[in-house]
Amino acid sequence: MAGDDCSLHHDLRSLTPKQQIDHQENQVLTCALQVALTGLGKPIDHVALADVFAASPWFENLARYSDMFTDMGLQTVPSSNWQFHPLNDYYPRVKSTLPMVEMVNLYMVSGSNWPLHQNEEALAVSQNMNSKLHFAVHAPLADIPVPHTEVYRKEALLSGAAGAFFAKHPEGVMVKLLGLAGSRNVFAVADLGECLRQIAEYDAEIEVLLQEKLDTTRWREMTVDLTITPESLSISNVRQILFAGGKWVGNFISPDLVVSDKHREVLMRVGEYARAHGYVAPEGVNCGIDYFIAGDDIIVTEINARWTGGLFPAQFISLLGVQDAAVAFFDMLPLAEMETLSHFQREYLFPGTGRDFSYIPMGFTPFSTEIDGKENYFTWQVVTGDFAAFVAAKNTVLSPQALPTAESILKEALL
């Protein structure tokens, strides 16, 4: 896993300046998923990680995470089965050192990991199924409810072709572009002028998807994972998407989140659609579905034919037998507080017997970023139980600059 999203639709050698930054940020965050795989795997598995993990202080922290995974009761991939490769030459290096294994698992089939799959048909399926534009065109034909959507080339937008669309949606419009993970290619704009400013660096041929912006006072955004085989479709890992300050901040996972019969009917239809377009394997493939609900009403906004970010915390929760509600989120920590956080993680490590909450470490990124004169890095975790108690506890041992997203989740997202 090396942040493969961008290579599905773009030549990595000809990215725009913003795409280059976004791609690098995605690669950095994907490193946290690499760490999580060492905890979700088995002793016979192998995991490839960024070579930066092999240097101090990241290797020592990686070892601490491995110990915590084991102490929580997980099977783990032993350090003898960790490989380290440079991100800019990741998959060729993995191929050259690949041990004898029964199966190679990929985050998704992409152009980046061509050395491992070498399958033109699988790549074409992945490109289509991970394309917001493809879904916008084909989903209505499969009787899948989607928001009002129109697709334009940038040159048409420059000529004012989408004026009627913006006039019909004065509350704002969602703009979606091909490639790049998460919110890096999805953003809200108030009008056509703002849309054009956001896509100024792209050439005139780029396709731009315009979609009505759903009223979040009525609609609640959810996501699930589908497992698709030739004979079956199954729904798992129901999650509510958490927002704060208009940005995605994490996932809320709870036994109380259930899929109604009417919603299930539509979600299974999405699975049938993906399977009909060739996204299927005998061992099962994962497909994430992002959708909004309001009562029995449901609108599907996009699908992700790959492992999803929410799949990882859901797997931790399932393997550990968590029964409480949980919040999974990325956050930022000053590098100087790495060991302080480590002690905090240990004190409240799942199952956190006798505590109001428990902490499940999932991963971290082996790169530091300077903010306000301090070096910071990303951490990825699940907090089970009383989230307010977690925030209060972390504030007693960590600085105000540590884990700021947790504060936003408590004050805005969990209301």
Could you characterize the architecture of this molecule?
The protein has 14 helices and 15 strands. It is globular and about 55 Å long. It has four domains: 5-129, no CATH class; 148-212, ATP-grasp fold, A domain (Dna Ligase, domain 1), CATH 3.30.1490; 220-304, D-amino Acid Aminotransferase, Chain A, domain 1 (2-Layer Sandwich), CATH 3.30.470; 311-413. A hairpin with a 2-residue loop joins strand 10 and strand 11. It is α+β, with helices and mostly antiparallel strands.
Question: Quick gist of this model?
Answer:
The protein is of the alpha+beta class and 415 residues long. 34% of the residues lie in helices and 25% in strands.
List the helices and strands and how they pair.
Elements: H1 17-40, E1 47-50, H2 58-71, E2 82-85, H3 90-97, H4 114-117, H5 120-129, H6 132-138, E3 149-153, H7 154-158, H8 163-168, E4 173-176, E5 186-189, H9 192-198, E6 207-212, E7 220-228, E8 233-244, E9 247-253, H10 261-276, E10 285-294, E11 297-304, H11 311-320, E12 326-334, H12 338-347, E13 357-364, E14 369-371, E15 374-385, H13 387-397, H14 404-413
Parallel strand pairs: 1-2
Antiparallel strand pairs: 3-6, 4-5, 4-6, 7-8, 7-10, 8-9, 9-12, 10-11, 12-15, 13-15, 14-15
